[in-house]
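Handout, section B. The chain below has 260 residues.
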Amino acid sequence: MLSQQQQTEEIQYIPPKGEFEIFRDEEHYREKMKEWGLSATKEVKKEFWYKDKTIQRLVTIKGYETFGLKTEFNTLVIEFQDGNLSCIHPAYLKEMQQASFGKESIWGEEDKGSEKSEPILEVHKKEPEEAMVANPKKVKEPKPKKERPAKVELPEEKVHFTGKVKQFAMTYNPFNEENDEVVVLEDVVIVKESPLELKYAWCSHSKTLKKFELAAGDLLEFDGKVAAKKLAKGKDVPEEFVIDVAVAYKINNPSKIVKL
């Protein structure tokens, strides 16, 4: 193992680009750790290992960057003990916590499967006349082209929303392999000079939202950021938590919530 000075020189830092999202409070930190699959225990981890074959340093998570228009992605901003900041993917940091990391990391492996040749299938060839009888050619009628819905230009900054609680549902979280509770909203409108109707949207049923003791039919107005992120169905959930509509947009960090 290299000395700390040598390790510092070996690390390739990727500093964040300008300002980044920080955690509002301990509950927000707990929710994000669960979402990224970085802490499955009651006591939320505060320090994580950053390592490879020659480096092993403790880091803390200072915040995260959010990007993507069609789908929302997060990049973690971690701080080393010497104060240096760097960006890293949540799944990569999660993998670094494994004892075997650095020996055979799946992130550094080349595609071993590319060297394998495809199996050769033995095909029974029919005589021309027999093939024509067994597989007569059918004339396919051209299918009418489906009209694609126009793309919605979503604002990147925080905006004001109105909407109505449709239902509570469960969505599968692949990071922690559990179902998370969410709130599905309907009649969602982004309030601006030219109002933008989203129809349906969803957000996490956070501790903040639970304080309002929401019920289906409640009218709300609030601030938040929106991203194009489909709501996935939960696995083996009670019938009342099954999502019964297609929801294409997620609202992040709702604040200034007013129940009308």
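Note. The two ends are 60 Å apart (CA to CA). Compare this with the example in section A.
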